[in-house]
Amino acid sequence: MQKTWRSSVLLAYSLAVLAFLYLPLIILALYSFNDSRINAVWSGFTFKWYQALFQNTRVLEALTNTLIIGFFSTIISTALGTTAAIALHRYHYKFKTVINGLVYLPILIPEIVMGLSLLVLFSQAHLPLGKPTLILAHITFCVSFVVITVGARMEGMRNDLEQAASDLYATPWQTFRYITLPLIMPGIIAGALIAFTLSIDDFVISFFVAGPNSTTLPLYIYAMVKRGISPEINALSTLMMCATVSMVVLAEILQPRHHHRSQEE
Amino acid sequence: MKNGKLLVAPTVLWLCVFFIIPMLIVVAVSFASRTPYGQVVFNWTFSNYQRFAEALYISIFGQTLVVAFITTVVTILMGYPVAWSIAKLPKKWQQPGLVIVMAPFWINFLIRSYAWVIILRSQGVINTILLKLGLITTPLQMLYNEGAVMLGMIYALLPFMVLPIYVSIEQLDRRLLEAAADLGAAPMTAFRKITLPLTMPGIAAGTILVFISSLGMFVVPDVMGGAKSALIGNLIQNQFLSARDWPFGSALSIVLAVLSLVLIMLYYKVLNTQKGGADDAKDVA
Amino acid sequence: MKKYVSLLLFLLLSLLSGCSTGPSGTTTPPKSAPSSQQQTLNLYSWADNFNPEVLAAFEKKYNCKINYDVFANNEELLAKIQAGGSSYDVIQPSDYMVATMIKLKLLEPLEVKALPNTKGIIPALRAPSFDPEGKYSVVYTWGVTGIAYNKKFVKDTPKSWHDLWNPAYKGRLILLNDSREVLGMALKMHGYSNNSTNPAEVQTALKDLQKLMPSILAFDTDTIKQKFIAEEAWIGTMWSGDAYFTYKDNKNIGFVIPEEGATIWADTFAIPKGSKNKELAEKFINYLYDPEVSAKNYEYIGYNDPNEKSEQYHSKEYNNDPFLKAAKDYITKGEWLKDIGDALPMYDKAWTELKTGK
């Protein structure tokens, strides 16, 4: 039937895009076994970068910092962004355009300007630079992305279910908890994923608001560039990749059945 | 929720403290000038904005817009089908699907860009394979040109298109498409008349995220483009990191932000005039 | 909902206070107070700039902990120090940045008595033009910008900067991605100073570079080594220390300092105003110039050792390396890059024009 060739073309196309996304990572993984320190040409197989990695406390510390900061900024920015998106979609505000503008602006300002201006703010407020300032900064640039992503979901949402719930005397809280939240959940998850991705890969803003003892992985890697990025970083990236993929698979296997009962259909 | 309106307050408050206040400083700096040693003196001048009006800087802006536009269009073309495929997966596989698409982006950007260099350079993976196969006799020069910059941009920004579009497609009511098919609409027509308008919010959100992010890019032109061209992101970066001209850099950033904001508003205006179509489609159901 | 908002705020506040442990109050030393008598040295430097064993040995000898943080660019370092609030004890600005920081009064004068080991430094590096009295900085790593080339493809040994303009190297030429280095090179070629503030001279340099543009493979500072090793690039401008690195992985690489003269550069040690631990900082600097320690350190990082007294502790290979030697012999002849103040925007504009082809 026509429908099947259409969907197989679609699948093939999607897999091709996925291959495009993963191609550099395969190269990266291969080069983590490369003997050369400088990573320019292939010069032999080795495990030494993996051994070196586990002795390199500075890299591991940077990784921990990155994950801690990513975790907190994702949670807080997702909570803030989601509530804002809901309110903006549901209520009429006198200054809606102003609020919308406010939400978009942090994305429009070049990172370096935001980083510098936050540095000035924190130093004026005598806030010691470190992990807390990093988290504050990350939340600030992540919030907008969450609002926009959740907002896109709200815009396409049907209102009839919420209507029906309140007709059936559900309290606003119940309506939110049992109708709205499940309906917009995919939007929230997508927003959180974007926030997390932005946070763990941010360099420019982080640079300015980081203090002693709060070096993140991107900061460490960018600073390494001058001397040549050590293949330990390739090893680390490879391990992170494997950990992510296996976590996804594991979560699927371990998750109890009834969790999957679809909320929507 | 009686005080539901206040739900927007935490975010607004947050952005006022951590964004608006610092931004006021930036606006002030954009009207200042630099001392010989790069310090800022506040003497309220308009010269930083006047400097921007030079043909040199305008042309950089123009080129950046072209690159951003192409990046956005290509990411839509690449991202839409992927988002569609994920949204059509069985429910339990959708979230893992999303994570699989996002996971490459949890590896440091610089590292991934260098991996592309290894793939594309004259002694790189692709050239080696092509040479071994005898398809070419001299290595192709695939790096350090505008094509490589585009590739890097698309690669870096694709997920920001996929996610919002997925969010829209996922909530698409399939009954609409079935109804259309029952009424004899060709799949292409159904897509154009129903699917596309209904998933427009996702495309719009993705477009904004990708377009805006590509305006500020500066690492990609350096690594993939061999730093041979200057985009607005590089220009701004240079003002802070080599020319030590914070006032000019601030002025450039403000011009960039205002310009982007205008573009966004225009974009939404265009979308809203088309929105009639989407609502019609909803009424059919 | 409100409950959640306040929970969120609570979480945030506890996070903020939790991370800045130690006795309450904002003026206390930074970060988690180390155990009783152990001191902390906040070091702010380039990544991978020390032999880790040397750092560990210092920590052990002086019973302290080193917080080694990294930056990637001098201007970032400046912004961070100017804003204050980061409380670093030892920083590593490059030559011209030392001059700027002295002018902006951001550096603490060094106590000469506390640094006896620095007497071993090559005289030419003891009072360089960026810090004429040697009061604020000590040279740590240094080198010369010359021409690196691959002998397989470049048959005639380059002698002059003019050789970069040879059309035979079209598409295989690489220049440092730095406005001062590139314009400085073209200025040197014409016999001008690499610190020229004369617009006509800078324009001449720009014109020549614009002619070179079609030949250029890329501008690159950070991964230039990889480009030479992989033989993507055949010829280009490079720092002597990087050339030494590159040679280890590709024996075809040669390095020359052109006859018209070249730029020399250095990264230094300095102590920023506001250091909470100046004494320990000086002990650290002094320690790194101990002849044995510095030999161990420079063998690892592969740059020129500025310490004459450590020569006997270095390996033969290091002492006889032609690249490091070439740089060393040149040290009195090179010209430092200076902070050119008001002329900096002019250089930036020329740089932008070069890249946009306008």
Number of strands of chain C: 12
Strand content of chain C: 15-25%
User: What is the helix fraction of residues of chain A, given as a range?
Assistant: over 70%
| N-to-C series of helices and strands of chain A | HHHHHHHHHHH
Plain-language structure description:
The complex is a heterotrimer of chains A (265), B (285) and C (358). Chain A has 265 residues and is mostly helical. Helices cover 75% and strands 0% of the residues of chain A. Chain A is globular, with a radius of gyration of 23 Å. In chain B, 74% of the residues lie in helices and 1% in strands. Chain B has helices at residues 9-30, 47-52, 55-87, 91-102, 109-120, 125-133, 146-170, 174-182, 187-198, 200-215, 219-223, 232-241, 246-284; strands at residues 33-34, 40-41. In chain B, α10 packs antiparallel against α13 and α12 runs antiparallel to α13 (246-284). Residues 281-285 of chain B have low confidence and may be disordered. Chain C folds into two domains: 15-141 and 266-328, Periplasmic binding protein-like II (D-Maltodextrin-Binding Protein, domain 2), CATH 3.40.190; 143-264 and 334-356, D-Maltodextrin-Binding Protein, domain 2, CATH 3.40.190.10. Residues 1-35 of chain C have low confidence and may be disordered. Chains in contact: A-B, A-C, B-C. Chains A and B meet through α1, α3, α4, α5 and α6 of A and α1, α3, α4, α5 and α7 of B.
